[in-house]
Amino acid sequence: MQSSRLCKVTEDLTAPTAGALPEHAVRTALLALLAEHGTITSTEAAARLGYSSGLCSFHLRQLARHGLIEEAPPTDGRARPWQLPRPQQTAAADDFGDLARGLEDESYQRWLARRTDAPAEWQHDDAFSAVVHLTPAELTAVGDAVRRILARFRDREHNPGARPAGARPVAAVTRLFPLLPDDQPDRHPDER
């Protein structure tokens, strides 16, 4: 009888579920490590966090099962590294991206026009821009870092129970692109 209950509990913990994965201290710490380091293995995570590699491995697999992380290309035959998901680029995604950018712009203009209608504690935003000089690899790394930070809050979209009191939808818009000179509009930046 005890054994069958243990099997049932184990099945419940490891069965894929629809929806977001509930927040857990180990998973939160693992996502933070991925955001900071890009890729980790369960052994590396265990050494950094002070947990067993088995516990870290279990929670990494749970995060992957729910689409919050994915396997990274292996660096050797034995290690199983993990990373935050990388977006797939397709023609349909480009069309959707154009639509999304238009909606983001429209939403921001609506915010600016109606900001004073919001409760006082919400009447500010954190809009900023900067021009930085990056290599293509650094541009990718900056984008990955932003995605890793935002991934910590992804479960709140489909799991209202994961939202802290007072949470509201907030647009997080990041656009990273090389600046092209006005005098050579048809040339690629690497061709100059």
From TrEMBL:
Signal peptide: none
InterPro entries noted in UniProt: ArsR-like_HTH, WH-like_DNA-bd_sf, WH_DNA-bd_sf
Gene3D superfamilies: Winged helix-like DNA-binding domain superfamily/Winged helix DNA-binding domain (1.10.10.10)
Coiled coil: none
Tree of life domain: Bacteria
Pfam families: HTH_20 (PF12840)
Protein name in the entry: Winged helix-turn-helix transcriptional regulator
